[in-house]
Amino acid sequence: MECCKCKKYNWNDPQKAIWTDSNDQGYCVFHAPTEYKEVSEADFAALVARHLAIAINQNKEECNLSGTVFCGNIDFPDQTLPKLDLRDTSFEGRVVFKGCNFDLLNLNDASFEDRVAFIDCDFNGRVAFGGCTFVSDVSFDGSSFLKGAAFISTKFMGDAYFNETRFLNGLWFRDVVFSGKVHFVDSEFAHGRFWKVIAEDYIMLRYCRFTASSCIDFVEIDLLWFDFLSTNLENIRFTSCNWPQDKGRYCIQHDMHGVQLSEVLNFYQRMKRKCKTENNEYEASKWHIAEKEAQLKILKREKKSNFIWALLWLYKIFSGFGENPLRACVIFLVILFLPLATISGVEVYNCFSWHFDFDKVDMVLKDWLMFVPFARSNDFRDVSGGMHLVIIGWQLFITTQFALFAFALRNRFRR
Predict the structure, then answer these.
(1) Is the pLDDT of residue 193 over 90?
(2) I need a surface site. Which of 133, 137, 337, 384 has the fewest CB within 10 A?
(3) What pTM was computed for the model?
């Protein structure tokens, strides 16, 4: 009896069945469940190596191992492999591909139950990981994808490492779930896209390199766990992405925890500059606020520039760092009419009368106008020296607040 799985996956050399299930379907040693293989892990690994060797020695275009249930640990040695079909395979032990050269690799719907390592491998053709599940850690350190790599609906349940990995002709992550940490350190990109990726732990892009005019797109992603602190942002585009926020402002994870604040500040400044270069003033305004909040944290922690910290804090309170015209306008109106309310209250308290006295109203208005910049008022010769200083100070206060309001209003219309 031939193996039903060999027939299903169109193996060129169908294998003899060694086990039959309850539906009278036969399975060969490659496709039978582990408990029915009747061979040791070492013997099974030898059978896989023999199957590969036959394909290589006979110059076959493809080595079909689709649907195979790999029991135990298995190593693929340093060699050039033909088109390797590993669809629907199940790897129950540790898997190591070291120094391998792949013409083409299909791992769609494969599952890896233990650690996986693609170390210093060259993928010369396209590589497909659609529907693939990595239960434990996976590493692609030092490998090169020369014709593109597609991770569609892939699940990374452990940590994933792409350190010093080269993606020279396209990289696609779509509907991928990262449950563990992901490291792209010293990696190289030509172009690619992260689309609807779900991250449940840190995804770190550090010191990455980009080929000339290349760009990585991040589309419809919640960027809460993404770390771009030491990455060239000019080669990254963000479309319909959600940045993490704290109290209505952009605030990345490191900022929330108060760590690496200097790098956080540098990141905010680069994002603001990037948005301005792209003429996106709306986003530039948000990154400006995040930048100033980070500066406040740094100044407060250093405790060496209390005066500068106080000025920056007042800038925030009175105008929202020059980005909140409504707040600036309300405060301007309050300090403009506060002297009038105070003078009127004192006058009513001291000389209350039910008779309306126009002379007193005129006197109150004249006294108030002394506090208003550039307004006709009474002669200052009737004002004491101390009160004269208060009036001058208040006029400067009103003038400064009006300038902050005008500046914030200009910024709002500029968007």
Answers:
(1) yes
(2) 384
(3) 0.85
